[in-house]
């Protein structure tokens, strides 16, 4: 799972999770907002995607993002015939949120001079986990 710093952060978030699977493809073609709308509507489920020529107003994707964007998604995913695809949960899963929160809190505490031991006790994780997070934050350039 990848992480990127975000200059247009949502309140309370210091990191932006890179979207997985087809959500990453949708984000690349049409932007993060559209990918997150698809994740909110269908994340964690296998959904039927239709080619642009077969889309109708009754299609779940058309209801979610509108006909024009649904057609662009079909093109971006190279949908030539109807196909069932797993839609990842994106940033909505509890696991991703917990990891993001722990990483964000660790970054904040390190920037404020907290010790590895104090961070570990505060977040109820091992000192080894804190050291690994610290190394990851340095490698990503978020911590100097």
Features:
144 residues; mainly alpha; Arc Repressor Mutant, subunit A; elongated
Mean pLDDT: 86
Main beta sheet: 2 strands, antiparallel
Beta-strand residue fraction: 5-15%
User: Over the alpha carbons, how many angstroms does the gyration radius reach?
Assistant: 19 Å
Shape label: elongated
End-to-end distance, in Å? 21 Å
- Helix/sheet category: mainly alpha
Spans of at least 5 consecutive residues whose pLDDT stays below 50 are 5-13
**Number of separate strands:** 4
How much helical structure, as a percent, in the residues? 40-55%
User: Helix count?
Assistant: 7
SSE layout:
Elements: E1 3-5, E2 15-17, H1 21-30, H2 32-42, E3 45-49, H3 60-65, H4 67-76, E4 83-87, H5 94-111, H6 116-123, H7 127-139
Antiparallel strand pairs: 1-2, 3-4
Account of the 3D structure:
The protein has 144 residues and is mainly α. It has 2 domains: 67 residues; 46 residues, Arc Repressor Mutant, subunit A. Strands 1-2 form a two-stranded antiparallel ribbon. Helix 6 packs across helix 7.
Question: How would you concisely characterize the structure shown here?
Answer:
This protein has 144 residues and is mainly alpha-helical. The chain has seven helices and four strands.
